[in-house]
Amino acid sequence: MFRQILIQSGDHLCLPSRLVILSERGESKNPQLLLCSFSKPLQGHSIAEISLHRIDIIARGAANLMNTPHASDRLIVALDFDTLEQAKRLVSELDGTANFFKIGMGLQLDPGTNQFIRELVAGGKKVFLDYKYFDIEATVERAVSQASKIGVSFLTVHGNSSIIQAAVRGRAASDMKVFAVTVLTSLDAEDIKEMGFNCSVEDLVLHRASQAVKWGCDGVIASGREVAPIRGRVGKSLLVVTPGIRPDGYGTDDQKRTMTPGEAIEAGADYLVVGRPITGAPTPRQAAAEIVAEIGEALEKRAKVSA
Q1: What strands lie across the sheet with 17-23, from one edge to the other?
Q2: Domain locations along the chain
């Protein structure tokens, strides 16, 4: 529900016009300022002449935009480094190009990691905590609760129904989103067979995605190859974060189920996790910008298909 609308544009509402909307989201009851821009000008009307009906129309448009992340917001850069100093340098270099960062187990035991997460959040960045929590229910619930208190946006968990549900309880009324891991992108059919699963990778991913919906997860982690089948099974009831992203012409490294950024977005992925193609590039900022551009182009194609 919109509590207050402030229109900023001087004497006349001509775009790029901007709305600052004070809103309440979910169950958190914490008001948040949201800045939205519109691409079509509303010229020739002073602010005093804008009717309440028109304000309602603009507000509804803003609501749609709030649920549609910009291309740059869909890129999650993996800070898979040996030291925090390396991670901090990359965050600084990518400022204004990428604002969402994954912190995984490589930095977990660094004594400064928790403070680093707080600094990222305080600086307006978003954090994807990819620790893949897999433990007894009480431990997972406490760990997830702690993560929610420091401002983490996304978090991964792995396990059966009781473990996943414990993670959802741990999130409580926070805005943090819980993602269930399906099958790592470094695994293929032979790998999961070795682990005791006598089915295809796609079947296992789809089973886990279906269960994630039942267990109250916000989304799943899945390779680009399984995104379309997931959409076919559960529709848009889950967000899909896709790792194993490799730009055209880039090697696969240790990944076995890869896709290009454009292919994954066109298939229906919501967010892409990219590490080495950016962190190992001669100019990481340029590499990130090129991926963001590819995401944007794919989003336009996807929009035309669904129109």
Answers
A1: 2-8, 17-23, 32-38
A2: 2-66, 71-306
Q: How many residues does the chain have?
A: 307
Q: Which of 4, 11, 2 is nearest to 49 (CA)?
A: 11
DSSP three-state, residue 14: coil
Q: Would strands 2-8 and 17-23 be described as parallel, antiparallel, or unpaired?
A: antiparallel
Model pTM? Answer: 0.78
Q: Is the peptide bond preceding residue 16 cis, with omega within 30 degrees of 0?
A: yes
- Classify domain 71-306 at the CATH topology level: TIM Barrel (3.20.20)
Question: Measuring CA to CA, how many Å separate 110 from each of 116, 128, 213, 284?
Answer: 10, 17, 34, 24
Q: What is the mean pLDDT of residues 193-206?
A: 96
Please name which of 122, 70, 125 lies closest in space to residue 94, comparing C-alpha atoms. Answer: 125
Q: Rounded to 5 degrees, what angle do the CA atoms 207, 270, 237 make?
A: 50
b (16+ CB within 10 A) / e for 268-297: bbbbbbbbbbbbeeeebbebbbbbbebbbe
Which of these is catalytic: 40, 126, 132, 304? 132
Q: What is the mean pLDDT of residues 94-110?
A: 96
Backbone angles phi, psi at 3, to 5 degrees: -95, -30
- At 184 the three-state DSSP class reads coil
Q: Which residue has the tokens 């005791």?
A: 196
Q: What integer best gives the mean pLDDT of the chain?
A: 83
**Per-residue pLDDT reduced to its tens digit, 149-196:** 999 999 999 999 999 999 999 999 999 999 999 999 999 999 999 999
Q: 275 is written with which tokens?
A: 């590490």
Q: Show the beta-strand stretches assigned E in the chain.
A: 2-8, 17-23, 32-38, 75-78, 100-104, 126-133, 154-157, 177-181, 219-221, 239-242, 271-274
Decide if 29 is catalytic. Answer: no
53 CB-contact burial (10 Å; exposed 0-12 / middle 13-18 / buried 19+): exposed
